[in-house]
Amino acid sequence: MVMKTAAETLTPVTLELGGKDAFIVCEDVNVAEVSQVAVRAALQSSGQNCAGAERFYVHSSIYEEFVNHIIKIVKSVRVGPPLQGTYDMGAICLPEHTNKLQDLVDDALRKGADVAVRGKLFIGDLGNDVVGQFYPPTVILNVNHTMKIMQEEIFGPIIAIMKFNTDDEVVHLANDSKFGLGSAVFSADPKRANKIASRIHCGFAAINDFATTYMCQSLPFGGVKESGFGRFGGVEGLRACCLVKAVAEDRIKYIKTVIPKPLQYPVADNAFEFQKALVEVLYNISLIDRIKALGNLIKIFTAPESSTDLKKE
């Protein structure tokens, strides 16, 4: 709706449209440490985080160990109104969104997924109209990409975990999404993690961490595909809010930009050769070819038919 309205007046826009971020855990990590990061990545702000982790891909050799750690942590999470006690997670902002969350879970269950654990709600006597805004943190296993929960944005406290066996496989899974906001890759080998991250189609990636790309405001933030386009944050974000104007002028007092004699109207017989050599001098990547082109320019300038004015120029 924003883009459609902006198009009517050609108003520039930066669109950050949410995501379906992949959280990739290789087999060489410290499972206990990464598990804590994973739960934080999913439950921060009750999962209502555009850059939150929504798809958890865990190497099959540590899958059981990782799941056991996640279940233990989620069981300890306390959900309730922060003004009435000490809680780990609060409510869902939009009352109707809890219905969408449950619809995603029900679809996954119908297609073969299992709920491993759900957190506890401590909501007291808030009233039925408010109770519906609290959704328990939920861990779902045996998921696959035919399920809506692995394709649609969750924006809630649900941890869906899937196995992988090879780096190529997990890259394919991570890219199998219409979204492309961010990602997180965990491995004891930073080179391996960076290699995996470099192959994921997204706007940013955190290596052995989560959301640090958002905390570093010197970095551009934004996505690709249906996660939008443009960036905020960093130099790119500042320029997105500006009308950039390019200005060129002669910076050295005694040098002026003039039209070379061969190119002045009417053009000379050797105008094409002159223009070709000039372009090659200015833009050729190869230094050797630029030197050759410069030699051609000198030949044209020093040719017998050239005038005294041309030589001087």
From TrEMBL:
This is Aldehyde dehydrogenase domain-containing protein. Keywords: Oxidoreductase. Pfam families: Aldedh (PF00171). Gene3D superfamilies: Aldehyde Dehydrogenase, Chain A, domain 2. The active site is at residue 16. GO terms for molecular function: oxidoreductase activity, acting on the aldehyde or oxo group of donors, NAD or NADP as acceptor. The lineage of its organism: Eukaryota, Viridiplantae, Streptophyta, Embryophyta, Tracheophyta. Belongs to the aldehyde dehydrogenase family. It comes from the Eukaryota. It comes from Ceratopteris richardii.
